[in-house]
Structure formats: structure tokens, C-alpha cells
Design goal:
Elements lengths: L6 E23 L11 E17 L5 E6 L11 E7 L4 E7 L4 E3 L18 H15 L4 H16 L11 H22 L1 H15 L6 H17 L5 H47 L6
Antiparallel strand pairs: 1-2, 1-4, 2-3, 4-5, 5-6
């Protein structure tokens, strides 16, 4: 059985630390409209905090600089930090200040107390997310377009809902491909003649019209599709087909959420066990 995560860690002692805080302001609006009316000016302020920690590896004695931009670690010189990575993917999963006993998620995926994708750890959250995501993907035009873009991105990266951590990349890729197929089926249900035009159009571009085998094939496909799509002659029938596709998508999305949610819990437990083992066995931490 493949391990969910392979924890590895390094123990550091803080030598010095520096935090650089600054803010950026974005301004929009202003000017005047076609009637000469002055438009309101709107501004928003974003605060940033960049931290530099100079640390020494307790085992090797080598010094290095750690930089944290998305989060800051509360530490002062002399504090010991345990940094835990996922060795298989080289992702930093957790930072633990052993003196204050405060842990930081460090942008990692396998932290069962973190707010990132917290819905995956909740039975109700997994269902509600599946219901919402599936409904958005089947919104004609806008939902289709965004769904296909996100699906292609997920197929390439293996990410879940754009999160950089992989959880289980293979399942996420299959789920994205399934979502694209559902969107294509919904487009076919909504615009059956469009697909006939695509098939015939492809025949005109790529097949010699004198050898119209592809045209005949396209016509046969159209006849089968048209016979099936005759079922969608009313909004009620169209709605029943849409509901069927929606149900398939909800069930599959819920199942993928469930798999990833369990992996988060299992991975987090593995990191907890690793950190506990380091605390109990590392010579520098024995008192």
C-alpha cells in the first residue's frame, strides 16, 4: 500500500529573526462619465508581512536563512523549530516551535486543524461542496467555460480546486476528466444540433467529400443523437436529463472529496506521530 506521506524533518535553533511589514494601496475609479459627473474613488489597503529567520541546524551546525511570506513564526533567539516535509513531494508541511508548542501549517496539505479545504474533513461539508460545485459546472456557457478551464488545469497539475498540494493526484485528474465529460454531455443535451454541425464540419475539413464515408458516419451519429434528443422536446424532459447528469457529478465529486478528506486526516496523523517520535528520541530535546 502506498504511503500517504513520508515525513522527514530537520531541527533548527533560531539565531536571529527579522520581520518586514509593509502595505500596498490599490486605487480605482475617479475621472468623470459622459455627463461630466465625477465618479467615486475607491481604495483598498493590503498589509504584508515578510519574515526572515536565521537558524542553525542542531545536528550539522550549519546555518541557513528561512523566509516566510504567507505566514510568520513566533520565535526568538534560542527557540528550537522542527520543520517537517513530505519527502516524496518535497513539500514543507508543518513548522513547530518546540519551546512555545505552537504549530504552523506552512501551506501544507496534511494538517487536520488547518482552514485550507476544511470542508473536506466534514461529512456535511463534503456533501455541500459537491452539490455547489456540480451546480456551478452545469450553468450554461459561463459554468461550462470555467469548468473546462479548471478541469484542464487539474488534469495537468493533479491539484484539487486549485490547491497546490496534490492530496491524491490520480483521483483528482480522473475527477477533472469526468467533469469535462459531464459538461460535454450537458452541452449535447442542450444543443444537439451543434454537435451534428461539428461532426459534419470536421468531415468537410478533413475528409475528401468524394469519399464521403465520414459524412455518412456523421449523419448516422446525428440520427442517433437526434432520436435520443427528441426526448428533450420540452423543458421538463431537458430538466430530467440535466438532473441525471447533475446527480452523477454530485456523487462522484462527493466520493473524491471523501477520499481526499480521509487522506488529510491520515497524513496529519502520520506527521503527529513523526513529531512525537522526534521529541522523544532526539538527543538535543532530552532534559
Amino acid at each position: 500500500m502506498t504511503k500517504i506521506i513520508e515525513p522527514t524533518s530537520s531541527l533548527y535553533e533560531v539565531i536571529d529573526q527579522n520581520v518586514h511589514r509593509y502595505s500596498t494601496t490599490s486605487v480605482s475609479g475617479g475621472g468623470s462619465d459622459m455627463h461630466g459627473n465625477i465618479q467615486n474613488i475607491q481604495s483598498s489597503v493590503t498589509r504584508h508581512s515578510e519574515q526572515e529567520l536565521w537558524v542553525k541546524n542542531v545536528d550539522s551546525g550549519k546555518e541557513r536563512k528561512l523566509e516566510f511570506n504567507s505566514f510568520n513564526v513566533d520565535a526568538r533567539p534560542g527557540h528550537k523549530l522542527l520543520l517537517i516535509w513530505d519527502a516524496a513531494r518535497d513539500n514543507l508541511e508543518r513548522v513547530i516551535n518546540l519551546d512555545t508548542e505552537i504549530k504552523y501549517h506552512a501551506g501544507g496539505a496534511y494538517n487536520d486543524w488547518d482552514t485550507n479545504h476544511h470542508f473536506l474533513r466534514s461529512k456535511v461539508g463534503r456533501v455541500l461542496n459537491a452539490v455547489f460545485i456540480s451546480a456551478c459546472l452545469l450553468i450554461p456557457f459561463l459554468g461550462w467555460f470555467i469548468g473546462v478551464l479548471l478541469g484542464l488545469g487539474s488534469i495537468l497539475s493533479g491539484s484539487l480546486y486549485g490547491h497546490r498540494s496534490l492530496y491524491r493526484a490520480g483521483i483528482n485528474r480522473l475527477h477533472a476528466a469526468f467533469g469535462i465529460l459531464i459538461i460535454a454531455a450537458h452541452m449535447m443535451v442542450t444543443f444537439p444540433d451543434l454537435w451534428y454541425s461539428i461532426v459534419v464540419g470536421s468531415g468537410l475539413w478533413w475528409i475528401d467529400y468524394g469519399l464521403n464515408g465520414f459524412m455518412i458516419l456523421g449523419h448516422q451519429i446525428h440520427m442517433q443523437v437526434a432520436e435520443f434528443m427528441g426526448y428533450t422536446s420540452s423543458w421538463i424532459r431537458w430538466g430530467s436529463l440535466t438532473a441525471g447528469l447533475y446527480t452523477y457529478l454530485v456523487v462522484v465529486t462527493w466520493w473524491v472529496n471523501r477520499v481526499n478528506g480521509k487522506r488529510i486526516l491520515s497524513g496529519s496523523a502520520a506527521i503527529d506521530a513523526h513529531s512525537k517520535d522526534v521529541k522523544s528520541t532526539h538527543p538535543a530535546l532530552q532534559h
